[in-house]
Specification:
This protein is α/β, with parallel strands linked by helices. The chain contains 3 helices and 7 strands.
């Protein structure tokens, strides 16, 4: 048997705040999970997103400490259009979440932005710019 990718884990310092953020991005997290030590959401692809409180992690790994410094794993959410990147970014910032990188047009052909989740993890929003109906014009 070959191991297969199944899930992504997030360690949350405040479960309810973390789940509220990811619900705004469309993840279907059970409503009763806000006070649970562990929560899960299954994506349409079958991949699961898992949340555990810091206390849960320490229950089986007593030496665990909250990471500091840079990140080694990032989550990214695809939007349908560049305009959607801008609007989702604006909605999250208006809801009190912190922007890390304002929307910009990346050299690799995407509209991109980064918002921090409640634990300070960067969450990317992106869309291919060539899919926008108003992106570019043909010149003869």
């Amino acid at each position: 048997m070959t191991p297969r990718f199944d899930s992504i884990g997030i360690v949350a310092s405040d479960m309810a705040a973390s789940l509220a953020f990811y619900r705004r991005l469309g993840l279907d997290v059970p409503s009763g999970a806000d006070s649970a030590p562990h929560a899960e959401a299954t994506l349409p692809s079958g991949v699961r997103v898992l949340w555990d409180t810091e206390e849960t992690i320490r229950s089986f790994d007593p030496g665990w400490t909250r990471p500091t410094g840079g990140e080694r794993l990032g989550l990214a959410f695809r939007c349908d259009t560049a305009a959607e990147v801008d609007s989702v970014h604006a909605e999250l910032v208006a809801a009190g979440y912190r922007s890390h990188l304002e929307p910009w047009d990346a050299v690799w052909g995407q509209r991109y932005a980064v918002v921090l989740d409640p634990d300070g993890c960067g969450v990317s929003l992106f869309a291919d710019t060539d899919t926008d109906t108003d992106a570019g014009t043909d010149e003869d």
